[in-house]
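Quick one, T. Sequence first:
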Amino acid sequence: MNNLKVIIVGAGIGGLTAGIALRQAGYEVEIYDRVRELRPAGAGISLWSNGVKVLNRLGLGSKMAEIGGLMNRMQYRRHTGELLNDIDLTPLIEEVGQRPYPVARADLQQMLLEAYGEEVRLECKCVGVHQDETGVTAYFENGHAARGDLLVAADGVRSILRQYVLDEKVEPDYAGYVNWNGLVPVAPDLAPRDTWMIYVGEHQRASLMPVGSDRFYFFFDVPMTKEEAQQAGDIRSDLTAFFAGWADPVQTLIQRLDPEKTNRVLIHSVGPLPQMVRGRIALLGDAAHTTCPDLGQGGCQALEDALVLTHYLMTTNLGIEYALKRYERERMERANPVVEKARRRAEQIHGKDPNVTQQWYDQLASEKPADVTGAIAKIILAGPMR
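Structure tokens:
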């Protein structure tokens, strides 16, 4: 299909990547976002090899390598510091054909904005849509209306357009834990510069991942009820209390982080949904499948969405709605199981059943590194970028 005009609502990772892929396919694209200023949600993101391969396909591989962290190993340690497992990632990289890249979200967003190369229209909150046999119109709170041949709803976990596609409101589901995240300079008293370090215990987690410009992306996880999670206190004081008695590098990290630049996020998921498409409107990324960050696949699934959507628009001559249905079928088969698996993983890590979490701790101490990398590879290779 040639000469299509595509309206994209949402300028996050998924929306921008879709804009790049669709423009490279020769389509006219307009991207809108409700915010006044594009600021990424969260400090960092782990892009596993399937997501990086999408960026490679779009010609962004060398730029991704520049901003991503060189992660050669994973180490699991008890919260008191004892080593549970030391995993060389070389076999994984060789099996899937691409190294993963943890990356600062701001760096990734800037790279995608530059690659998109057109204006993103800000302060445009989409409040309604109408479609007919010739196209779709998006209506914005500021009075603007945009008309296109199809609309991509990439408007995030609290998507307004999801309700239109599903004909019912689906609220994000609280995953049972709070995440603090940010960036700190690489330092040997925190972790080796090429290692993803993960401390686990007491149903909690503290982690450091290398990203570009000699920084670590860090995060802390603490399970709590939704009512408890609403009561945010002083970041350093809260983390000091929650992680009392943990290993020295964790204590050093708590003292070294900048509370003003540390995010506190209540983790939610959405899905699996019964559909992703209605006529000429397609959900993409978190609007379709918000994934707990416990598999590192949320951003990767949005990247895959963008590529698969573009592929079907380019390769079918049976009309837009047919192409979108093909996209929907493939992406639901892929992304819905990832949502479910990530949710189970979140429950396993964060003590929903304390016995299950203890079994996981025991497993970490005895599991062969090849089994860990093999499980990661299985997830990566189940997608379109084999």
